[in-house]
Write a structure and sequence with these properties.
CATH superfamily of the domain at 3-166 and 200-227 and 281-299: NAD(P)-binding Rossmann-like Domain
Distance between the termini: 37 Å
Strand order of the largest sheet: 3-2-1-4-5-7-11
Structural class: alpha/beta
Helix content: 40-55%
CATH class of the domain at 3-166 and 200-227 and 281-299: Alpha Beta
Number of helices: 12
Strand content: 15-25%
Mean pLDDT: 92
Length: 317
């Protein structure tokens, strides 16, 4: 891979993949709709010739085609807001796949685990996709669209991440907690503090995603990107307090609190149906990755949290 485009390059996952590609010497086109955010990304990477940016609309496939014409791989990291998922996700999928098919490109789709619904134990890529939520069903339709046989020249694959955290993270479940603790303020934790859950450190995820993308035989399949293992909210908060010295209260938000918040906030209203993820300790199996790609990359939680919190504190000046 000599050159790649990252769609949604200024988002949490997009930024991590941009950084990983640059670290490997790959030329990168950062694609997004906000010029100010794209320029900031250029500044953060010292505006090297290795990184360029193109503005465009993810829903207009022709703008993607113009930006991706001479790349080897497309990384699709753009997303839609929860409250817009029903109306926009499939339109996004149609646009990026149409562009990839027109150009005959490899395309890596970054997605999550809503497709599985209620989950038990450790799930591999063949785990039944029986979602009980609206978002899960839409994500299943999204997968069918990606792998639709109508695309004659595109070469897609899907990577699935659990909840994540890291310096570039923006909209994860853990973000309000870490942001508040880094700011030495009272904060909230979405879900049950006692339930062990899986998180992946975004720099680790980016490395594994690019490792998968580099192999021709990876395409046409689903791939899991597992985290280090299960950890409870209480354990995360204790580690964060040890790192920052912040002892202020962290308030857990259960489903009932989220439901009430949803009466006044359209985003929180949409969070209610996927609160089951905060109550079930489902893990993604990394067996396929280990067998075909290599060892799972798993930064210890304490180290990952320290790097994330130090970054958040530095951004506050």
């Amino acid at each position: 891979m000599e050159k790649a485009i990252v769609l949604g390059a200024t988002g949490g996952t997009g930024q991590a993949i941009v950084a990983e590609l640059l670290a490997r010497g790959v030329k990168v086109v950062a694609f997004g709709r906000s010029e100010s955010k794209l320029k900031q990304l250029m500044i953060e990477h010292h505006a090297t010739q290795q990184l360029t940016y193109k503005m465009g609309d993810i829903f207009e496939y022709k703008t993607i085609v113009e930006a991706a014409e001479d790349v080897d791989v497309m990384f699709q990291c753009a997303n839609v807001q929860y409250q817009e998922m029903a109306e926009k996700l499939l339109l996004l999928g149609e646009s990026v796949m149409k562009a990839a098919d027109f150009l005959g490109k490899k395309i890596v789709i970054v997605d999550g685990i809503y497709v599985y619904g209620h989950q038990v134990d450790i799930g591999n890529e063949n785990h039944p996709k029986q979602p009980h939520t609206k978002k899960g069903r839409i994500r299943v339709e999204f997968e069918k669209l990606v792998f639709n046989k109508k695309w004659k020249k595109a070469k897609p694959l899907i990577v699935r991440l659990p909840d994540y955290y890291g310096p570039t993270s923006q909209n994860s479940y853990l973000q309000p907690t870490l942001t508040g603790i880094a700011a030495n303020k009272m904060s909230v934790f979405i879900g049950n503090l006692k339930t062990p859950r899986e998180y992946v450190y975004l720099p680790d995820a980016a490395k594994m995603i690019v490792n998968i993308a580099e192999k021709n035989e990876s395409y046409g399949e689903n791939w899991n990107i597992p985290g280090l293992g299960l950890i409870s909210g209480d354990e995360i908060i204790q580690m964060a307090r040890d790192i920052t010295g912040n002892r202020k209260i962290v308030i857990p938000l259960n489903k009932q609190v989220i439901r009430i918040s949803g009466l006044f906030d359209s985003f929180m209203k949409e969070v209610v149906e996927i609160m089951y993820l905060t109550e079930e300790g489902f893990q993604l199996s990394g067996e396929k990755y280990e067998n075909r790609i290599g060892p799972i990359l798993a930064t210890p939680y304490k180290k990952g949290l320290e790097e994330t919190l130090r970054f958040l504190m530095s951004k506050r000046g």
